[in-house]
Amino acid sequence: MFTQLPDLASRALGGSVLYANDESFAEKECLIRASDPVFVPENFGNKGQIYDGWETRRRREPGFDFAVIRLGVPGTVRGVVIDTAYFKGNFPPQCSVEGACVEGYPSIEELLKADWKPLVSREPIEGHTENAFAVDSAERVTHVRLIMHPDGGVARLRVHGEPRPDLKEFADLPLDLAAVASGGRCLESSNTFYSDANNTLLPGHANHQADGWETGRRRGEGNDWMRLRLAGRGTVDVVEVDTSHMKFNAPGEVRLRGFDAESGKSMEDDSAWFDILPRTRVQPDGLHRFRVRDMPPATHAHLDIYPDGGIARLRMIGMLTPEARAALGA
Fold this sequence. Notes:
This protein is mainly beta. It has two helices and 21 strands. The chain has helices at 108-112, 322-329; strands spanning 16-20, 44-45, 48-49, 54-55, 65-83, 94-100, 117-124, 130-134, 140-149, 153-154, 156-163, 175-176, 185-189, 213-214, 224-242, 253-259, 274-281, 287-291, 298-306, 310-311, 313-320. Strands 12, 13, 15, 16, 17, 18, 19 and 21 form an eight-stranded antiparallel β-sheet that branches. Strands 1, 5, 6, 7, 8, 9 and 11 form a seven-stranded antiparallel β-sheet that branches. Strands 2-3 form a two-stranded antiparallel ribbon. The chain is globular.
């Protein structure tokens, strides 16, 4: 399901709502909050009931309302969720979503004139519902435009996809090879009962316990894990395992392994994986930094936590291989 992919528009990833033609009732910035929408009944302000979302006035003339969002990380969109939580009598009957690729730092005027292409055609949506739409497009986009036909309110816009940042300017510099901002992402994980494993790859420090990855309490044998695709083929020099805010639910130990897709071996072959960080004890609520040396190149990584628990952030600082750097230049 595409919702397992990172939300490229999220404020937590650096997304921004640059423009809305109207926000009379509720602010456009609410659209990309990482948190779930909340609602307090009979909580009135000067403009009426306060909503945790974007809401326009009642349109009395033909047309539509729209908002322009800069993605935190450019990428290929695989699906969109238009969440109308708590908008029950004031949601738009139809919505559409468009994408554009505009490099650099365009002005609003330039963005409004951009070559916008459809990601989600004009579709009916329901109130107080997470309206999910798969996207069939190979286009790389830097911005999206949410259009409400004709007006109303939307609580959140989630733009799930595969990150495709432009790393040419950073190809010869150390990178966090695991970070979503660099192009890394979580492919799968054993358990996401409390929070998503992709959170560990977000920028900055975790703000609270739910701003990381936390599994349910394991009662059987085995351990929890997550598997990553790195930003590119590279060698890892420093590993950071951050358990901030995980005070009574941090794992006891962690292990990090690497896999090179160019080895010709199968990812399912356990012998194809090599230790980047052997099984190592970690402490609650703290940043652990490990210098690793003479690592072979890797395209993927696998983090085991023993037996369960949560981590806030995972960093894998290293360098892309010369071949990977050359491919970026091309």
